[in-house]
């Protein structure tokens, strides 16, 4: 059967695809071996909760960072990590600070990603509203933000409209 495939133009295309895959795999996986940590933000299957997998290459360990662990979902999050990293030890870290509401998981993950050492941001330091503003401003003012001018103009229009409405009352 493989000879039959190799004799066709599809077979040559298939061989080329296999060679390309091998080459790309070599090129990109070599770099992964040099990494100490790999950070993988994960959006759960429901699409409503972010958590973080921190792969510690040297220890062959994956830490699961979850700011809102729930018995109902813990097993599926753990099993996902096990399926992806079958040869690694999967542990739920106790360093992950807990969120106080149901909507700040993304902010927690972004904070952990900013902290390359992945040490916990203690709950006494974490202020939800100010943290949201800080993250928003850092994204807005990022030099790669090509829409900054447009966003500023839109914000000015909103402020002007609000001031006009206040002046009318």
From TrEMBL:
GO biological processes: protein desumoylation; proteolysis
GO cellular component, one term: nucleus
Annotated Gene3D superfamilies: Adenoviral Proteinase, Chain A (3.40.395.10)
A GO molecular-function annotation: deSUMOylase activity
Pfam families for this protein: Peptidase_C48
UniProt record similarity statement: Belongs to the peptidase C48 family.
PANTHER family in the record: SENTRIN/SUMO-SPECIFIC PROTEASE, UBIQUITIN-LIKE-SPECIFIC PROTEASE 1A
Protein name: Ubiquitin-like protease family profile domain-containing protein
Species whose genome carries this gene: Prunus dulcis
Source organism phylogeny: Eukaryota, Viridiplantae, Streptophyta, Embryophyta, Tracheophyta
